[in-house]
Write a structure and sequence with these properties.
Blueprint lengths: L6 H6 L10 H5 L5 H12 L5 H17 L8 H11 L14 H5 L7 H26 L7 H11 L5 H5 L8 H14 L1 H27 L5 E3 L5 E6 L10 E5 L5 E6 L5 H17 L7 E5 L3 E5 L12 H17 L4 E5 L8 H16 L5 E5 L3 H10 L3 E6 L1 E4 L2 E4 L4 E2 L7 H7 L2 H14 L1
Parallel strand pairs: 1-5, 4-8, 4-9, 6-7, 7-8
Antiparallel strand pairs: 2-3, 2-5, 9-12, 10-11
């Protein structure tokens, strides 16, 4: 079973895309196109088990500690990919192609097609030599041994022996280029592709390792079994002065009911938690001080849910359909982490309160999954606190300085009744502006 999520979650957490505030943009520093494509694949398909997650995390962590440098010239790989993509049999070189007529007309050195083949062949030779040198000197990354051994096995293939004897940068004769072209483009094409794949993985690993060092991110430890979630000092990676928070969850406290006033930081905290969980399941470093987690089958969020106007659905009905989808996912036996921001905000307070109590209580019974649900309805929290024993109650407080609300963004235990919407409206002078505008209209 693979790791499951959906477009709503990816959009809520801004996982993909090329904007400055996407999560992938934090790591989008690869030097090869193949590395960039592989990085996006990793974001689209997080790892499904603890062993794979911990192995990747340990490998990237070791490379970060060793401060390993990418050993190739990046421009080589565009030349190689273009070269290998040309599978037209009519471009296959053979010694007899160097006819007297060809010598007299275009001079082979200026033949565009030949120049591209020559460039591709020499680029492959340089990559083979650089990879051999790299695996011979790499130290301090014992978790890279499996990859290293696979690379060595490819480099030691008898077919590559003549290329390994060439001197990088030396001029190749037409006949040698023709022989190497047959070898690389036709006979050993799959092996060359495997070597490139190792290069692109190394590009991603070293890039992510560099981000971990520069930003001070840590590598989470994935746990088998029912486990728990322990996060210390988690924060949103795109906030310059982010406030860090900590939380602990297990089977006996598998749901957090979060309250707080508008602008208190609920949505930001939920996104920070979702991003940390997503990156952890990739084996990537996370913006936190420490993290241990039980591996989930997937993550789903509902933070910025749009109206479904195409269906003629109201915001409330869109919320209902979203909760129904998540209920079905849970009913399939998956272990999920679900984040819901301001459940049922699209309906009246009475219905929202009753629905929040019913749905939250039902979610809490799925002890193999974990939930973070925020609400403005503190009355719902009080009912749940009296009736459901495995819910943690937390809030983000507001401190009033006169008539001005100040936000600490620091998570506290309990339920808050903070409601400062009208205070903010009054502080912005909206009512006075409307009254003055009405006076002017009456005078005129």
């Amino acid at each position: 079973m693979g790791f499951v999520t959906d477009g709503q979650t990816l959009d809520d957490l801004k996982i993909l895309g090329r904007g400055d505030h996407t999560v992938i943009n934090l790591f989008d520093r690869t030097v090869t196109r193949g590395g960039a494509e592989l990085l996006e694949d990793m974001f689209r398909y997080p790892l499904p088990d603890a062993e794979a997650i911990n192995r990747r995390a340990a490998m990237i962590g070791d490379l970060a500690t060793a401060q390993t440098v990418f050993p190739f010239r990046p421009e080589l790989f565009d030349a190689i990919e273009q070269y290998l993509s040309n599978t037209d049999e009519r471009t296959r070189l053979a010694p007899e192609d160097q006819s007297l007529g060809k010598k007299l007309t275009g001079l082979i050195a200026e033949d565009v097609e030949y120049k591209n083949i020559y460039k591709g062949v020499t680029a492959v030779i340089e990559v083979l030599h650089a990879f051999r040198d790299f695996v011979n000197v790499i130290e301090g990354a014992k978790t890279y041994e499996t990859e290293k051994n696979a690379i060595v096995s490819l480099l030691l293939l008898p077919a590559f022996e003549p290329l390994m004897k060439e001197r990088v940068g030396s001029k190749l004769s037409y006949n040698r280029v023709a022989a190497y072209d047959v070898l690389l483009r036709w006979r050993q094409r799959d092996e060359v592709k495997k070597i490139l794949r190792h290069v692109y993985y190394l590009d991603v690993y070293l890039t992510v390792a560099g981000v971990a060092r520069q930003r001070g991110f840590v590598f989470a430890r994935a746990l088998d079994g029912d486990g728990l979630l322990r996060l210390e000092g988690v924060y949103h990676p795109h906030l310059k002065k982010a406030v860090a928070n900590s939380l602990y969850m297990d089977r006996d406290s598998n749901l957090i009911f979060l309250t707080g006033a508008n602008m208190a930081g609920k949505s930001t905290f939920m996104k920070a938690l979702g991003i940390a969980l997503f990156l952890a399941h990739m084996g990537f470093p996370v913006p936190a001080g420490r993290m241990e987690f039980r591996v989930f089958d997937g993550i789903f969020t509902t933070i910025n849910l749009p109206d479904n106007l195409g269906m003629g659905a109201s915001h409330f009905y869109a919320e209902v359909l979203r909760v129904k989808k998540l209920a079905k996912e849970l009913g399939g036996g998956k272990r999920l982490f679900i984040i819901l921001d301001e459940l049922f905000r699209g309906t009246n307070v009475k219905d929202a309160c009753e629905a929040t109590i019913a749905v939250t209580g039902a979610f809490a019974q799925h002890r193999n999954s974990m939930f973070l649900i925020s609400s403005h309805i503190m009355e719902a929290g009080e009912v749940l606190r009296a009736s459901v024993g495995n819910i943690l109650f937390a809030y983000l407080p507001t401190v009033m300085e006169g008539v001005t609300p100040k936000y600490t963004y620091v998570l506290k235990e309990g339920i808050t009744a903070d409601r400062h919407g009208m205070v903010i409206v009054q502080n912005e002078g909206i009512i006075d502006i409307l009254r003055q505008g009405n006076k002017k209209k009456n005078v005129s």
